[in-house]
Every structure is written in structure tokens, then in C-alpha cells.
Specification:
Length: about 325
């Protein structure tokens, strides 16, 4: 999956490069910076001494030494001063320059911490938005696996308005289901299980065939589609080359988002793979919340799913 949000220790990530939220001297410090220097060993500090520091928003690359990662990309985030000193632009530059450095060195996987959200005081919610949007913008143009690594779930501060909107939506769905049950409404009235044999007869296509036909119908290239879906290029190649490929549900849903299908079209795509959107699945309801509103930003959807402890879209 090209972009994911995970909980863990960034020094333990087995990727081509991890990103260090460094200070301008590049000589180590507290927080993530100190952890990375301790895990990499004194050789990292010795190499950093040769680099002449780093300006805010820029990035420099060193070897990873004793880390599982082959390289460390050091970038200096802005100190929060209220938001009026160009902090947003500088923070965006951190992510963009780090990714461009990785791409320029032909790296395939990168793990980031949430830059500037520790002792530099950047509000965690705003820092998260900037990280997700900036990384997403780069992944529209390049194939790269990127992880945003959070040490604790408490470091994840979601968009409050979005979270409250989803919670109200989930509550309405729950209230409707309870009301339907209380009056003994037939289940078919609000959740119709798919007749897969009928779907196959009517559509006459496998998931792979149906997906490829929809890509053509929407006027998208393969690259545009799998990047919008947050799906790895190699996985998409398997789907294209194998008419009988059976995806995981979250992969199928990711393509529905990429194709900007409405609710009914999403159900039809899912049914070719033997799935359906269900009102008993919190994950399905959250995705449905976005689809019903015509919002198809895969990274924003995954941000919401992570906040509700659900599996992200695009995972194989």
C-alpha cells in the first residue's frame, strides 16, 4: 500500500529510509532525533558532522548504519509560533523535500514521524493534515511506499468536525437498525444480501474484468486509477493480468473510491468479488459516509478509518 498510518517505533521500520525530525545542527537532540541517533550509533553523528547543518524545511541524506533502514533523511521542521510565520509552508517543504530526496536516490519506501508535533509545538491535528495532504500530493505523481509512524495513538489528533460528522452518521444508522428490528421489519427491507449467481449472470464479468471496463469508462489511465486507490503497482498488475483475481474487500473498496463510484455502483463492483457494503460493519459505514457525500479523497478516508481503529483502504 503506497501510504499508510501505523503505530510503532520509527527506528524499527524495515524501509529504505526513515525520516529524522532533526534540529538545524543535525548533531542529535531529544525526541525522535535522539532516538534515531542512539539506534543508529555514533557513526551517524560522525557523518552528520560533515554536512554543515540543515536549514528549516530542507532535507539531507545519510546512511542508516545500525538501523534496519539503509538511510536516514534528516529534515528540520518549523517551530510553532502561532501560524503566522510561514510554518505551514515550511512543514510542507519538509515532507516534499524528504520525498524528493528519496525519489532522487531511487528509494522505494520511506517512514516519517509526525514532524514538528513534539517539542517544536506544532498542533498535532494541523501537523497531521499537512503530513497527509503533502504526502498524498507527491504520491499522485510517483510510486513510493510511505508510512506515517505514530509512537502512540494519542499522537493522532483527527479533524474534530469530520469525526463528529461520522459519529452522528453511525448513530443514525444504528438507530435505524434498532427501529427496524423493534417493529420486526424484514431484514431485506434495509440490508439485502447479494445473489452472486444473479449478479454474475447479469454483469457477466469477474472483478478484474469489471474493474478494467470501469477504468476505461471513466477515462482514466491504469496509473491514475491505482494511485487514486492507494494500491501498489505490483498488485494492480496482478489484477490486470489475472481475470480470476480475488481481491480483499478493502482493496475492492479502494478502487470504488478511485473510480468515484456512487453507492449503487460501489455495491455492484463489490458484488463481482463476492462482497457487499454492510450496515453492520463500522468500516463499511465510514466509507459509505464519504461516498454518499461525493468525497473521494482516499487519504482523508484512511485518516478517518485509522481514527476509528479500522483497516485502511488499499491494503492487499
Amino acid at each position: 500500500m503506497p501510504f499508510s498510518i501505523v503505530l510503532g517505533d520509527i527506528t524499527q521500520q524495515a524501509v529504505d529510509a526513515i525520516v529524522n525530525a532533526a534540529n538545524p545542527t543535525l548533531l542529535g537532540g531529544g525526541g525522535v532525533d535522539g532516538c534515531i541517533h542512539r539506534a543508529a550509533g555514533p557513526e551517524l553523528l560522525a557523518e552528520c558532522r560533515t554536512l554543515g547543518g540543515c536549514r528549516t524545511g530542507e532535507a539531507k541524506l545519510t546512511k542508516g548504519y545500525r538501523l534496519p533502514a539503509n538511510y536516514v533523511i534528516h529534515t528540520v521542521g518549523p517551530i510553532w509560533q502561532g501560524g503566522g510565520q510561514g510554518e505551514r509552508q515550511l512543514l510542507e517543504s519538509c515532507y516534499r523535500n524528504a520525498l524528493e530526496l528519496a525519489i532522487g536516490h531511487n528509494l522505494e519506501s520511506v517512514a516519517f514521524p509526525l514532524i514538528s508535533a513534539g517539542v517544536y509545538g506544532y498542533p498535532k491535528g494541523e501537523a497531521l493534515k499537512i503530513a497527509v495532504s503533502t504526502i498524498g500530493g507527491v504520491l499522485e505523481r510517483f510510486d513510493l511506499d510511505v508510512r506515517l509512524v505514530l509512537y502512540r495513538k494519542e499522537d493522532f489528533v483527527p479533524d474534530r468536525a469530520l469525526t463528529e460528522g461520522i459519529e452522528r452518521y453511525l448513530q443514525r444508522k444504528e438507530d435505524f437498525a434498532c427501529a427496524a428490528y423493534s417493529v420486526r421489519m424484514p431484514r431485506a427491507a434495509f440490508c439485502v444480501p447479494p445473489d452472486l449467481n444473479e449478479i454474475e449472470k447479469r454483469i457477466g464479468k469477474s472483478f478484474s474484468e469489471y474493474l478494467l471496463a470501469k477504468i476505461d469508462e471513466k477515462g482514466l489511465s491504469d496509473v491514475e486509477c491505482y494511485r487514486r486507490a492507494n494500491v501498489d503497482r505490483k498488485l494492480f498488475s496482478k489484477i490486470r493480468s489475472n481475470p480470476d483475481y480475488h481481491p480483499q474487500k478493502n482493496t475492492a473498496l479502494a478502487f470504488a473510491v478511485a473510480l468515484r463510484l456512487n453507492y449503487g455502483e460501489t455495491q455492484e463492483l463489490l458484488r463481482t468479488a463476492g462482497y457487499t457494503l454492510s450496515d453492520s460493519s463500522k468500516s463499511d459505514l465510514i466509507v459509505g459516509y464519504f461516498i454518499e457525500r461525493g468525497e473521494f479523497d482516499i487519504y482523508r478516508i484512511n485518516e478517518a478509518l485509522f481514527g476509528f481503529d479500522q483497516k485502511l483502504l488499499g491494503q492487499a
